[in-house]
Amino acid sequence: MGFTDFFKRKQPKYDSTNIRVTDLDVGFVFEYDLSSWEVQASYEYDWGDNYFSKEYKINNGSKTLFLSIEEDDEISLSVCDKIKVRELGDNVLTDLMNLQKPPKTLIYKDKKYLLDQESPGYFNDKTRGEDWVEFISWDFVDESGEFIVTIEQWEEKEFEASAGKAIKEFEISNILPK
């Protein structure tokens, strides 16, 4: 690195006049659901066949949520909150541990969810710089396709769950970099 390189500014990886949700990174701030949110952590998922998705841990000062972003032919977004697996029913965790299979349907907060897909993949915590970790994910959706429940298996007997909803890109606005 030469003396003149010291004064060169690092160029951002996004168009500063048109920052999109796909440009989010740790420290970015944005508006969603009448509140300001800060990106606190960044995660990456490898689903195989060169298909990746992103997830961000976001906080508005009183609540922490997870914003998932999938880019395929179009951008799919969802906002979810961590929940206890036992909130999904008495038998769900027992069946997962004994049978290693998810139920075809489940009830969460009086809403019926149908198993939509099973996705084995790898997870990477970009914020911590950890190694990729293998896991499996089962996505459930309600009849409208708007509400989502996800169960993830990390170890033989370690399960996590989240519940949330799909959102549109326009619901996230005023994105500012750190």
From TrEMBL:
InterPro entries, A to Z? DUF4178
Superkingdom field:
Bacteria
Organism expressing this protein natively: Labilibaculum antarcticum
Q: Which residues form the DUF4178 domain?
A: 26-168
The name of this protein is DUF4178 domain-containing protein
Q: Give one Pfam family, short name only.
A: DUF4178
